[in-house]
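Re: Re: ligand-bound prediction request (bumping)

Still looking for help on this. To restate: I need the protein modeled with iron/sulfur cluster bound, output as structure tokens. Inputs repeated here so nobody has to scroll up.
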Amino acid sequence: MNIKEKIRNMCREKNAIIMAHYYTDGEIQDIADFVGDSLALAQKAAETDADIIVMCGVHFMGETCKILCPGKKVLIPEPEATCSLAESCPADKFAEFVKAHPQHTVISYVNTTAATKAVTDVVVTSSNARQIVESFPHDTPIIFGPDKNLGSYINSITGRNMLLWDGACHVHERFSVEKIMQLKALHPDAKILVHPECKGPVVKIADKVGSTAALLKFSINDDATEFIVATESGILHEMQKSCPHKIFIPAPPNDSTCACNECSYMKMITMQKLYNCLLNETPEIVVDVNVVEKAVLPIKKMLEISAKLGL
Ligand code: 13P
Ligand code: SF4
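Reply:
Sorry for the wait, this slipped through. Here it is.
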């Protein structure tokens, strides 16, 4: 039996489900029971009846699962797979910022630690940020953290003036207009797909701005046959699988000669680590019960609003 068959067997024996984010390696996505963007992964975690959830993604995604399913065992193949965006927002500093701005509703991107979620009113992902922000009256004072790029994009499309935390994703900040336009010159008919974690000037040249799931859907439904993709290159796996006849070109980072822009944290998840993790049922995600009690509220609020809006 090869390692993939052994993994699938263990899943059956242990009633375990493997969930993977679109940024993980293609072979990890292929062995998973469920692949999705941050919102879909949280929605799936909330409804699964598996006893064990293995999160093939980064640490905050495992924490979100654990917070939603405190009675289940949540495993992560590599506990060091963190996220530069979540790390750009230490919970104690964010709590001080919140305290300094009373009367503000606190909206946090899902890319945050559980402790930061614990001082948040409602969580959002890039799939539902616009709709959730717009569910509050226009004059509501709002703190939005930690991604300043997503926050300014939402400000620009909603006409709001949310107070932004100064955080960013090191992967998405590496895309540049210059490199993307060089590719566009070589592929003039290609449509440009951009994740809203990218900087404002990159977002401005996009034909479509959206979460990983939204970009994937657009690439499937749009008539174009070529796409320049400015988000982590793992998403190209599902895009190419869904549309084998279309051409997907990864946008390169501005500061290197690599063709692809990869999240080194997501790429820490390997087949061998997944195997070991299922076999030994470790490393396990642990979240302090007091933190779970507080952090579950804004996550559930996000899921409720999303369900009401059909997202
Ligand atoms: P989405 O999956 O919500 O598009 O988020 C991208 C991301 O950076 C996940 O870490
Ligand atoms: Fe975090 Fe950026 Fe990696 Fe997403 S791509 S997990 S935001 S570091």
